[in-house]
Amino acid sequence: MAGNVLDADQNGRRRFVALGDSFTEGVGDRNEALPNGVRGWADRVAEKLAKAEPGWEYANLAVRSKRLRHIVDEQLDRALAMEPTLITLYAGGNDILDFGTDMDILMAEYERLVARLAATGATLVLFTGYDVKVSAVLEPFKKRNALYNERVREMAAKYGAVLVDYWCLDAYHDRRMWASDRLHMSKAGHKYMASQVLDHLGVPHKFSPKDWEPPQRLKLRDWERRQRRWVNDWVLPLFGRKLRGVTLGDALGPRWPEPVKVPRKAGLRKLAERQAAAAGSAAAGTKAQSNAQGKAQNNGGT
Length: 302
What we know:
Protein name: Lysophospholipase L1-like esterase
Strand order of the largest sheet: 5-4-3-1-2-6
Oligomer: single chain
Strand content: 5-15%
Number of strands: 6
Pfam families: Lipase_GDSL_2
InterPro entries: GDSL_Rv0518-like (IPR053140), SGNH_hydro (IPR013830), SGNH_hydro_sf (IPR036514)
Shape: globular
């Protein structure tokens, strides 16, 4: 592991780049004011870094549904070109859920990715995968997840990475830490993950676990109703997309594709508002110019 994560590099730069899929994009933590309509743990980490030490820049290249090969092809070179001082990586979860995935090949490719990132000298954060107990439908994938976690732990030790062992975080036993699809973290889950990452990095924060009352035990009829809704709303569409060879991330780009300087106050929401206002002004200017040109042409102008 590198030195204090808050230290700047030799060029005085502090830059956090996040790579991965829906876990890092922030799916499950809805926020329409932010890119792709989500927030997530990585945004929260970036904001706390900026509060602890001004001048932090942040890029989030993660896009939902991406497989490991997509992350290598679409995110790796972009991340390296940004010369980050802090990198987070979670990848491979979608591959685990794909039929026919060869875990030995997957983990060999994952290690090559980890090695490239570790060679930058940046602080590198890796994550194990959580054993999401949503249905017996996904039980066959449990062995794959256990193998994945074992190999990630080995890689973290080998390459000196910080390991956030998601598998061992008991707080996620509470169903309120999960979004309605039961595969992605809720807002509370993302907040808790941000606190774990910051704790591992030694960065101060004020995130605290939810002080919930114990969940009420569901009646059988209510449980069955929830199960039917979950299958209809999430499971069947998921397998339908797999059969059609499409994903929810096909039409999306990264939320923060280029490093942005994180404001110390109001954080990334304030930055998103500024960007939206600037885009609106640019669009209005383009429309005005187009109208003027059209008027000139209608009047016989050039």
